[in-house]
Design brief:
Layout lengths: L24 E4 L2 H4 L4 E5 L10 H16 L4 E6 L4 H13 L2 E7 L10 H8 L2 E6 L1 H5 L4 H8 L5 E3 L7 H13 L6 E6 L3 H9 L5 E6 L6 H13 L5 E4 L13 H14 L8 H13 L8 E5 L12
Parallel strand pairs: 2-10, 3-4, 3-6, 4-5, 7-8, 7-10, 8-9
Antiparallel strand pairs: 1-2
Length: 313
Amino acid sequence: MTGAHPSIPPPPDLGRLRPRLPSPLQPVEDERFEQYGVSLLLKRDDLIHPELPGNKWRKLAPNLRTALAEGRSTLLTFGGAYSNHLRATAAAGRLLGLATVGVVRGAELADRPLNDSLAHCVANGMRLVFIDRATYRRKAEPEVTARLCARFDDAFVIPEGGSNAAAAAGCAELGRELRGAADVVAVACGTGGTLAGLAAGLAPEQRALGFPVLKGGFLDKEIERLQREAFGGRTGTWRLDDRFHCGGYAKVPEELDAFCADFGERHGLSVDRIYVGKMLHGLLTLASEGAFPRGTALAAVVTGTADQAVSSR
């Protein structure tokens, strides 16, 4: 048959993992936002998959398809001692029958009892490799990556946080799901891959707003790099607000903890303090500052809940 290529297998199907897509979009009534003339919707990406929630699914899925299409048997990735990404990758490997290797920042951790997060990775079959912090900072250098991969046959490398061009392309679907639903779409940012894709998928009249959870002010360039690699250049209307990291990753001051507890009681949501809580607190602060014209519809992406996270405390 002309044009047929029977020797080329179809793209790997991850449907057997049964993701819930598109994720639900839930309007919430909150007088704290309404007093400033803005409405709030929650994009419940945390409901996509119980073990690969939110942006973890959206960033990992295209990488998993590539690894399966190439016939790889091992996933190798990177993260800190409390990395949500490591846990999600370990779970994906177990579900798909792939071996997983987690390269963990901090050689000193090798001699300590595993925390709950890393123990969760091991329970899902992940092999942990601890490296010193100086080497970890060089993890993207070809010689460092090659040295690590040489220890594991057929390893498919996924970067820290899962953020690469494929992940950004996967997160563009999040933006497409939200077209016409809100004027501004907000998301918490770790490595920037979700915002890079989200902004690309939104309609031209929509804006994406990112709330970094790490201090340092380095994400603008990283998001632009991801967009160049995934889409050929900066695309979509987006910006970052660096004021709401609360001192850095996993820093949860009493004010934020109280805000998250109150939001959870109001709306029946187990608010993740590390990412989602900082975004929601940032949105309310911006509303109080008059950053959004009256009548603005805000959509907040819930990338995960406190119930889905292994406690870092």
